[in-house]
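Researcher: Here's the sequence for the chain we discussed earlier.
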Amino acid sequence: MITTQAAVKHTLTARNWITVVILTAILAALVGGGAGYVLAHRSQQTIVEKFFPNAASFSKPADIQEVLAKVEPAVVSIDTTGIVRGRSSGTVEGAGTGMILTSSGQVLTNNHVIAGASDVTVTLFGQTHQLAARVIGSDPGQDLALLQIENAHGLPTVQLGDSNLARVGDTVLAIGNALALSGGLTVTMGIVSSKDRSLTATSDFTGKSENLSGLLQTDAAINSGNSGGPLVNSSGEVIGMNTAVAESTQGNAPAQNIGFAIAIDTIKPLLPLLRSGGSTG
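Model: Thanks. This is the structure I predict for it:
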């Protein structure tokens, strides 16, 4: 058995010299109390008795353009400003992504994108002007937050799908404010690599931990700034919210193309609480 140390990092971009990162460990692969994953060589042979064709795919580039036309207008870039206190006190700027749920400007994102922020702004797709936003409700335990864009109306919205219907091998697109690059959103493509993953996250910024389960795993490239952005199926439906990415911290087996998204079916039942201004912590 080959063991190596790794970490799963929330995909929040923090700018300036103070970096806000949330390091996590995959629960099923804790090694010696540290964050890690295990690669095992086994002699067992896996037999595939029947292969079901994967119909959830893009047959031509035009299909991707059609999906993007549905989803991208409802994806926003989020910028935050907060104060870090203590030994390394100062101002930190962060960047993430959000999805517009209502035409009146309700935006779904990760809680860690806005945690500790004193100022939150969003930028609509294809625009450069930042709009003020406020937090309506949050669920730190599930890493969810709902924002309200001030004075918004007539905005495009994403269509929420059914993550339970997603299968390993389904083609997906990840859309988001990757690395907070200027010039607009980044789109990457991959597949659903696995389902029902679990991980524990601890924030270096707040010191609080969260346990996330039922996650979708994908090899679509997810980078800092993608947090809160949609993982979309070939029908243009959101099946997950991109949240974390695995990174190697030491050892000779670096993590590659392992990203995690909160399944949309986990999020749906919690939306009423968020909309009512509720918070679990």
